[in-house]
Amino acid sequence: MKVNNIYRNIMLAIIPIFMNSSLAAASFDCRNASIVVEYMICENQELSRADEQMARAYYQLLNILPRSEQSLLKEGQREWLKERNLELPHCTLPGCEINFYELRIQQLDPVEQVSFNCGKASTPVEKKVCHSRLLQHADGRMAKVYKPLRHELKQDQHQWLIERNERLSQSYCDTSCAWQFYKDRIEFFVRYGVND
User: N or C terminus: fewer CB in 10 A for the chain?
Assistant: First the structure.
């Protein structure tokens, strides 16, 4: 009970500082910030820019998707925001918050086309990817993020493609499953590039 009161008093003391700040994030109005992460974003210009970029990328992708896939992206964004709200307050390493955003931005932006010719799609997996605008984007993003690393990770990517074809050909692996599989691969490349 005492901890809650202390936390509440601290937040009430710092709210005016944030409300007077000239920083604003595009994905929300800093005057309406209500949780710790939102205050963090409003206080840090670099984090605010990352939040703006992520929001822009999210809406650009959302706007090109058919309704059936918009709900999938919206649900994924809600889950990402929940994870962000849990993770960011506990970041201790320099750049942790920005890296968290960078992973999401790399999954979303820029909107891409599929990395192969859908007119020549012959396998069930290629057809599945071509049938989904979200998966076309995911395949194109994955290919773009992979490209600068292709010399180092050629064998690894070959193995991943075998796993992708196996996983995505399973009846249980719907668009949501395939999107997650691609997002995980994009995250792998981003983290590999950061640590390289």
Answer: N
- Number of structural domains (the chain) is 2
The span from the CA of 9 to the CA of 32, in Å, is: 18
**Interval 44-57: pLDDT, tens:** 999 999 999 999 99
- Asked if 153 and 146 touch (Cβ cutoff 8 Å), the reply is yes
Rounded to whole angstroms, the Cα distance separating 105 from 99 reads 10
Residues 105 and 168 in one domain: no
pLDDT tens for 133-147 read: 999 999 999 999 999
Interatomic CA distance for residues 4 and 138, integer angstroms: 43
Give the global pTM.
Answer: 0.84
- In terms of residue numbers, what domain contains 54? 1-111
